Prior knowledge:
Immunoglobulin-like, 2 domains, 4 helices, 8 strands, 24% helix
Amino acid sequence: MIKNKISLKTIIIGVILLLVGVLGVLGVNTAKTYLSGASADTVPKTILGKASDDGKSAVITWTTDKATQGIVEYGTTPASLLLMAPESDQGTSHSVNLSPLKAGTNYYFRIKIGDQEYDNDGIPYSFKSGEAVVTPTAVPTAVLIPTAPVGTQSGTSGSCDRTTDYNKDGVTNSLDYMYCMKNLPTGSAAPSVGNSKCPAGVDYNKDGVVNSLDVIKCLQDNK
């Protein structure tokens, strides 16, 4: 008789231990749900935080079995989730945009539905924002100045060569050749800068700079 009583007691203790183990398997969030009176079909599932490529925003998504309207509480440390992004409407498929964010920064978040807060067993969920996109500096396009057309034989009478400073500006370049070709009458030698009608040294085009363009302007006006 004593033996049977001890066996029954052992069975009762085993059942109690089994119940305790089942309650432990339910997890912290499930226990919170029952203790707070929240319904199991409002518990967030498939929670995901996805950051944008430019590092300026992120999208938090989750689902629920029952239509709910939640709030994402987030911040840059697990202990300071001071920023909030609420949903605009109820639903079972949820998506909340977080912005603006700092690029390359770890963010932590939890979901709040009613008075109940949901996280990863007491630890906030987390994601890292994307790196900032660096826009390359535009390289200025080089402007090509067309070369003046090739004239007659260089250095002969009635021609313009490319080695004479015809406009007397101290620099030998394509402007000298263009000046010579423009003011060279047929069969005559290369001209010198200025004449009785257009002496050099006068700002004929009124641009504040005295150069060969002034003489060209004067010669054009006095044709």
